[in-house]
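ok so I'm stuck.
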Amino acid sequence: MSDLLIGAHVRDDDPIGAGLAVGARTVQFFLADPQGWKGPRPRPDADRLRTARDQHGIAVYVHAPYVLNVATANNRIRIPSRKLLAQHAEAAAAIGARGLIVHGGHVSKGDAEQVGFDNWRKVFERTAADGGFPLPILIENTAGGDMAMARRLDAIARLWDAVGEFGAGFCLDTCHAHAGGIELATAVEKLRGITGRIDLVHCNDSRDDAGSGRDRHTTLGQGRIGPDELVDVVREAGGPVVCETPGEHVADDIALLRERV
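replied:
not stuck anymore, here's the structure
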Protein backbone atom coordinates (compact mmCIF):
# COMPACT_ATOMS: atom_id res chain seq x y z
CA MET A 1 0.00 0.00 0.00
CA SER A 2 3.01 2.32 0.36
CA ASP A 3 3.08 2.59 -3.44
CA LEU A 4 -0.58 3.63 -3.68
CA LEU A 5 -1.10 6.51 -6.08
CA ILE A 6 -2.91 9.31 -4.23
CA GLY A 7 -3.58 12.71 -5.76
CA ALA A 8 -6.13 15.31 -6.75
CA HIS A 9 -8.18 16.98 -9.42
CA VAL A 10 -6.05 19.93 -10.56
CA ARG A 11 -6.16 22.90 -12.90
CA ASP A 12 -5.59 22.05 -16.55
CA ASP A 13 -3.05 24.72 -17.51
CA ASP A 14 -0.17 22.94 -15.72
CA PRO A 15 -1.51 19.69 -14.26
CA ILE A 16 1.86 18.13 -13.44
CA GLY A 17 3.11 21.29 -11.74
CA ALA A 18 -0.16 21.66 -9.84
CA GLY A 19 0.03 18.04 -8.75
CA LEU A 20 3.61 18.30 -7.53
CA ALA A 21 2.71 21.43 -5.56
CA VAL A 22 0.22 19.48 -3.43
CA GLY A 23 2.18 16.25 -3.16
CA ALA A 24 0.06 14.35 -5.67
CA ARG A 25 1.11 11.19 -7.48
CA THR A 26 -2.19 11.09 -9.35
CA VAL A 27 -3.68 14.02 -11.25
CA GLN A 28 -7.05 14.43 -12.91
CA PHE A 29 -8.14 17.37 -15.02
CA PHE A 30 -10.48 18.49 -17.79
CA LEU A 31 -9.60 18.97 -21.45
CA ALA A 32 -12.50 21.35 -22.06
CA ASP A 33 -15.18 23.34 -20.25
CA PRO A 34 -16.89 20.73 -18.02
CA GLN A 35 -20.23 22.48 -18.49
CA GLY A 36 -19.91 22.98 -22.25
CA TRP A 37 -20.26 21.04 -25.48
CA LYS A 38 -17.01 22.02 -27.17
CA GLY A 39 -14.48 19.33 -27.98
CA PRO A 40 -11.17 19.01 -26.14
CA ARG A 41 -8.75 21.89 -26.53
CA PRO A 42 -5.48 21.18 -28.39
CA ARG A 43 -2.59 20.42 -26.02
CA PRO A 44 0.61 21.90 -27.47
CA ASP A 45 2.27 20.69 -24.27
CA ALA A 46 1.35 17.03 -24.88
CA ASP A 47 4.96 15.88 -25.28
CA ARG A 48 6.06 17.84 -22.22
CA LEU A 49 3.13 16.45 -20.25
CA ARG A 50 4.03 12.86 -21.12
CA THR A 51 7.70 13.47 -20.31
CA ALA A 52 6.90 15.10 -16.96
CA ARG A 53 4.51 12.30 -16.15
CA ASP A 54 7.23 9.72 -16.80
CA GLN A 55 9.91 11.67 -14.94
CA HIS A 56 7.82 12.14 -11.81
CA GLY A 57 5.88 8.87 -11.90
CA ILE A 58 2.53 10.65 -11.86
CA ALA A 59 -0.60 8.85 -13.06
CA VAL A 60 -2.77 11.02 -15.32
CA TYR A 61 -6.56 10.81 -15.63
CA VAL A 62 -9.00 12.95 -17.62
CA HIS A 63 -12.57 13.70 -16.60
CA ALA A 64 -15.15 14.06 -19.38
CA PRO A 65 -17.52 17.07 -19.34
CA TYR A 66 -20.44 16.83 -16.94
CA VAL A 67 -22.98 17.60 -19.68
CA LEU A 68 -22.27 14.35 -21.48
CA ASN A 69 -25.15 11.85 -21.22
CA VAL A 70 -25.01 8.88 -23.56
CA ALA A 71 -27.87 7.14 -21.74
CA THR A 72 -30.65 9.59 -22.58
CA ALA A 73 -33.39 8.89 -25.12
CA ASN A 74 -33.11 12.51 -26.29
CA ASN A 75 -31.28 12.39 -29.64
CA ARG A 76 -30.21 16.03 -29.36
CA ILE A 77 -28.21 15.14 -26.24
CA ARG A 78 -27.28 11.49 -26.81
CA ILE A 79 -25.75 11.87 -30.28
CA PRO A 80 -23.46 14.82 -29.44
CA SER A 81 -22.61 13.05 -26.17
CA ARG A 82 -21.35 10.02 -28.06
CA LYS A 83 -19.29 12.26 -30.31
CA LEU A 84 -17.88 14.18 -27.36
CA LEU A 85 -17.00 10.96 -25.52
CA ALA A 86 -15.06 9.70 -28.53
CA GLN A 87 -13.24 13.01 -28.94
CA HIS A 88 -12.22 13.14 -25.29
CA ALA A 89 -11.08 9.51 -25.35
CA GLU A 90 -8.78 10.21 -28.29
CA ALA A 91 -7.44 13.40 -26.72
CA ALA A 92 -6.88 11.74 -23.34
CA ALA A 93 -5.04 8.84 -24.92
CA ALA A 94 -2.86 11.28 -26.85
CA ILE A 95 -1.49 12.77 -23.62
CA GLY A 96 -0.91 9.37 -22.04
CA ALA A 97 -3.85 9.32 -19.64
CA ARG A 98 -4.64 6.05 -17.87
CA GLY A 99 -8.39 6.48 -18.23
CA LEU A 100 -11.30 8.77 -19.06
CA ILE A 101 -13.87 9.22 -16.29
CA VAL A 102 -17.48 9.75 -17.35
CA HIS A 103 -20.69 9.95 -15.32
CA GLY A 104 -23.26 7.22 -15.84
CA GLY A 105 -25.97 9.57 -17.05
CA HIS A 106 -29.73 9.16 -16.80
CA VAL A 107 -33.00 8.88 -18.68
CA SER A 108 -35.91 11.29 -18.31
CA LYS A 109 -39.06 10.67 -16.34
CA GLY A 110 -41.44 8.66 -18.47
CA ASP A 111 -38.66 6.83 -20.32
CA ALA A 112 -37.91 3.21 -19.52
CA GLU A 113 -34.66 2.77 -17.58
CA GLN A 114 -33.69 -0.07 -19.89
CA VAL A 115 -33.37 2.46 -22.71
CA GLY A 116 -30.47 4.04 -20.85
CA PHE A 117 -28.67 0.73 -20.31
CA ASP A 118 -29.23 -0.20 -23.96
CA ASN A 119 -27.85 3.16 -25.10
CA TRP A 120 -24.70 2.60 -23.05
CA ARG A 121 -24.28 -0.81 -24.67
CA LYS A 122 -24.60 0.74 -28.12
CA VAL A 123 -21.73 3.11 -27.32
CA PHE A 124 -19.39 0.21 -26.66
CA GLU A 125 -20.75 -1.97 -29.47
CA ARG A 126 -20.25 0.72 -32.08
CA THR A 127 -16.81 1.63 -30.80
CA ALA A 128 -15.76 -2.03 -30.63
CA ALA A 129 -16.68 -2.37 -34.30
CA ASP A 130 -14.12 0.35 -35.02
CA GLY A 131 -11.39 -1.17 -32.86
CA GLY A 132 -12.49 -0.01 -29.42
CA PHE A 133 -11.66 3.00 -27.29
CA PRO A 134 -7.97 3.99 -27.16
CA LEU A 135 -7.96 3.95 -23.34
CA PRO A 136 -10.18 2.65 -20.52
CA ILE A 137 -13.55 4.35 -20.08
CA LEU A 138 -14.23 4.56 -16.34
CA ILE A 139 -17.93 4.95 -15.55
CA GLU A 140 -18.46 6.84 -12.29
CA ASN A 141 -21.31 6.27 -9.84
CA THR A 142 -23.51 9.32 -9.35
CA ALA A 143 -25.10 10.94 -6.31
CA GLY A 144 -28.69 11.63 -7.28
CA GLY A 145 -31.50 11.05 -9.73
CA ASP A 146 -34.17 8.36 -9.55
CA MET A 147 -33.59 7.59 -13.24
CA ALA A 148 -29.78 7.50 -13.02
CA MET A 149 -27.87 4.63 -14.57
CA ALA A 150 -25.17 4.45 -11.88
CA ARG A 151 -26.60 5.70 -8.60
CA ARG A 152 -27.90 2.59 -6.85
CA LEU A 153 -26.42 -0.90 -6.74
CA ASP A 154 -29.29 -2.48 -8.67
CA ALA A 155 -28.90 0.06 -11.48
CA ILE A 156 -25.13 -0.41 -11.61
CA ALA A 157 -25.71 -4.17 -11.88
CA ARG A 158 -28.04 -3.63 -14.85
CA LEU A 159 -25.55 -1.25 -16.42
CA TRP A 160 -22.76 -3.82 -16.08
CA ASP A 161 -24.97 -6.48 -17.62
CA ALA A 162 -25.00 -4.17 -20.64
CA VAL A 163 -21.36 -3.01 -20.80
CA GLY A 164 -19.25 -5.34 -18.68
CA GLU A 165 -18.26 -7.64 -21.52
CA PHE A 166 -16.63 -4.70 -23.32
CA GLY A 167 -14.14 -4.04 -20.52
CA ALA A 168 -15.79 -0.92 -19.12
CA GLY A 169 -13.93 0.40 -16.07
CA PHE A 170 -15.41 1.70 -12.83
CA CYS A 171 -14.69 4.81 -10.75
CA LEU A 172 -16.03 4.79 -7.19
CA ASP A 173 -16.84 8.23 -5.80
CA THR A 174 -17.28 8.12 -2.01
CA CYS A 175 -19.38 11.28 -1.77
CA HIS A 176 -21.64 10.05 -4.55
CA ALA A 177 -22.01 6.63 -2.94
CA HIS A 178 -22.84 8.21 0.44
CA ALA A 179 -25.38 10.57 -1.15
CA GLY A 180 -26.77 7.86 -3.40
CA GLY A 181 -27.60 5.51 -0.55
CA ILE A 182 -24.74 3.02 -0.93
CA GLU A 183 -23.25 1.97 2.41
CA LEU A 184 -19.55 2.81 2.35
CA ALA A 185 -18.70 0.02 4.78
CA THR A 186 -19.58 -2.58 2.15
CA ALA A 187 -19.32 -0.46 -1.03
CA VAL A 188 -16.03 -1.86 -2.30
CA GLU A 189 -17.05 -5.48 -1.76
CA LYS A 190 -20.48 -5.05 -3.35
CA LEU A 191 -19.35 -2.89 -6.27
CA ARG A 192 -16.42 -5.13 -7.06
CA GLY A 193 -18.84 -8.06 -6.93
CA ILE A 194 -20.95 -6.31 -9.59
CA THR A 195 -18.30 -4.81 -11.85
CA GLY A 196 -15.36 -7.10 -11.14
CA ARG A 197 -13.12 -4.06 -10.71
CA ILE A 198 -12.56 -0.65 -9.16
CA ASP A 199 -10.08 1.23 -11.32
CA LEU A 200 -10.08 4.56 -9.48
CA VAL A 201 -11.43 6.03 -6.26
CA HIS A 202 -12.67 9.60 -5.99
CA CYS A 203 -12.12 10.08 -2.26
CA ASN A 204 -14.38 12.93 -1.18
CA ASP A 205 -16.19 13.82 2.02
CA SER A 206 -19.82 14.97 1.79
CA ARG A 207 -21.50 18.10 3.12
CA ASP A 208 -24.84 16.27 3.30
CA ASP A 209 -26.45 13.30 5.01
CA ALA A 210 -26.39 9.77 3.62
CA GLY A 211 -29.04 9.19 0.98
CA SER A 212 -29.53 12.92 0.35
CA GLY A 213 -28.92 12.65 -3.38
CA ARG A 214 -26.84 15.84 -3.15
CA ASP A 215 -23.41 16.03 -4.76
CA ARG A 216 -21.49 18.47 -2.56
CA HIS A 217 -17.89 17.52 -1.83
CA THR A 218 -15.91 18.83 1.10
CA THR A 219 -12.52 18.42 2.77
CA LEU A 220 -11.86 15.05 4.39
CA GLY A 221 -12.92 15.09 8.03
CA GLN A 222 -15.12 18.17 7.66
CA GLY A 223 -18.25 16.51 6.33
CA ARG A 224 -20.72 13.74 7.14
CA ILE A 225 -18.45 10.80 6.30
CA GLY A 226 -16.05 9.64 8.98
CA PRO A 227 -12.36 9.73 7.99
CA ASP A 228 -12.03 6.10 9.06
CA GLU A 229 -14.71 5.13 6.53
CA LEU A 230 -12.88 6.94 3.75
CA VAL A 231 -9.54 5.41 4.67
CA ASP A 232 -11.12 1.94 4.74
CA VAL A 233 -12.59 2.42 1.25
CA VAL A 234 -9.24 3.54 -0.14
CA ARG A 235 -7.39 0.70 1.55
CA GLU A 236 -9.86 -1.96 0.42
CA ALA A 237 -10.07 -0.67 -3.15
CA GLY A 238 -6.26 -0.74 -3.34
CA GLY A 239 -5.94 1.39 -6.48
CA PRO A 240 -5.23 4.97 -7.56
CA VAL A 241 -7.03 7.77 -5.71
CA VAL A 242 -8.12 11.28 -6.70
CA CYS A 243 -9.40 13.80 -4.14
CA GLU A 244 -11.92 16.22 -5.66
CA THR A 245 -12.00 18.36 -2.55
CA PRO A 246 -11.51 22.14 -2.09
CA GLY A 247 -8.12 23.18 -3.41
CA GLU A 248 -7.03 25.10 -0.32
CA HIS A 249 -6.97 21.89 1.72
CA VAL A 250 -6.36 19.19 -0.88
CA ALA A 251 -2.68 18.83 0.10
CA ASP A 252 -3.85 18.00 3.62
CA ASP A 253 -6.33 15.45 2.24
CA ILE A 254 -3.56 13.73 0.26
CA ALA A 255 -1.28 13.75 3.32
CA LEU A 256 -4.04 12.31 5.53
CA LEU A 257 -4.66 9.41 3.17
CA ARG A 258 -0.98 8.75 2.63
CA GLU A 259 -0.37 8.64 6.38
CA ARG A 260 -3.44 6.60 7.30
CA VAL A 261 -3.51 4.16 4.39
